């Protein structure tokens, strides 16, 4: 029994060390201001960009964080491929390969009809939008620029998110959370346009 406990303790320590070693891997640039490109350092100055727990940060929500790491891997493997291929693979993984990412929120009735066909309605749209917004800021952070096409997709994502601001609060009463979300989106959009 004592031998089994020692072996299990060793295995547990080995697993924990392996997890720690993987997280500390130099494979990815840690999302910190000091690691960004010069352009990112000038534009992405707010602390929320580097807060992994800030759900409204491009990298703080689950989809945004995943997008950053997936894009790092994809860019290393496909340095010259069209970015649309990356987006298509991500949309396919989410189950929405045919979604028109250039559609903005100007025709809110059309957007609402499309969102109603989604499995989780606005939640799925928000995942798509978070992915695109994260991609734009990932490019800025890693490469110092945002592809013009990605910038247009991100602007469309912000426009779609504006249609659903009521999701973040009561329609009759502007809640603190809704106001914070709106302010954050406006700041992110302003920063996106500086890139």
Features of the shown structure:
single chain, 195 residues, globular, 8 helices, mainly alpha
Structure description:
It is a single chain. This protein has helices at residues 2-23, 38-43, 62-77, 83-94, 108-116, 122-143, 148-163, 176-194. It has 195 residues and is mostly helical. Helix 3 crosses helix 6 (122-143). The chain starts with a helix and ends with a helix.
Q: How do the helices and strands line up, and which of them pair or pack?
A:
Layout: H1 2-23, H2 38-43, H3 62-77, H4 83-94, H5 108-116, H6 122-143, H7 148-163, H8 176-194
Helix pairs in contact: 3-6, 4-6, 6-7, 7-8
Helix and strand content put the structural class at mainly alpha
Counted beta strands: 0
The major pleated sheet works out as: none
Rounded to an integer in angstroms, the radius of gyration calculated over CA atoms is: 19 Å
Shape: globular
Q: What fraction strand?
A: under 5%
Rounded mean pLDDT score: 86
**In angstroms, what separates the terminal alpha carbons?**
62 Å
Q: What is the H/E order?
A: HHHHHHHH
Relative helix content: 55-70%
Number of helices: 8
Question: Can you tell me the residue ranges where pLDDT is under 50 for at least 5 consecutive residues?
Answer: 3-24
Quick overview of this protein structure:
The chain is mostly helical. The protein is built from eight helices and no strands.
């Amino acid at each position: 029994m004592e031998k089994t406990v020692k072996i299990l303790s060793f295995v547990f320590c080995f697993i924990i060390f392996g997890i720690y070693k993987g997280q500390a891997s130099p494979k990815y640039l840690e999302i910190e201001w000091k690691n960004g490109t010069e352009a990112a350092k000038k534009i992405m100055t707010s602390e929320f960009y580097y807060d992994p727990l800030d759900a409204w940060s491009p990298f703080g929500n689950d989809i945004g964080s995943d997008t950053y790491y997936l894009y790092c891997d994809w860019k290393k493997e496909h340095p010259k491929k069209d970015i649309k291929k990356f987006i298509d693979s991500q949309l396919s993984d989410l189950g929405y390969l045919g979604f028109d990412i250039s559609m903005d929120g100007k025709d809110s009735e059309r957007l609402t009809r499309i969102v109603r066909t989604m499995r989780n309605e606005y939640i799925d749209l928000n995942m798509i939008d978070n992915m695109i917004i994260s991609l734009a800021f990932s490019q800025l952070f890693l490469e110092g620029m945002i592809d013009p096409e990605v910038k247009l997709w991100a602007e469309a994502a912000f426009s779609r998110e504006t249609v659903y601001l009521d999701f973040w609060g009561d329609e009759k009463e502007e809640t603190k959370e809704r106001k914070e979300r709106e302010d954050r989106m406006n700041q992110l959009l302003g920063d996106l346009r500086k890139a």
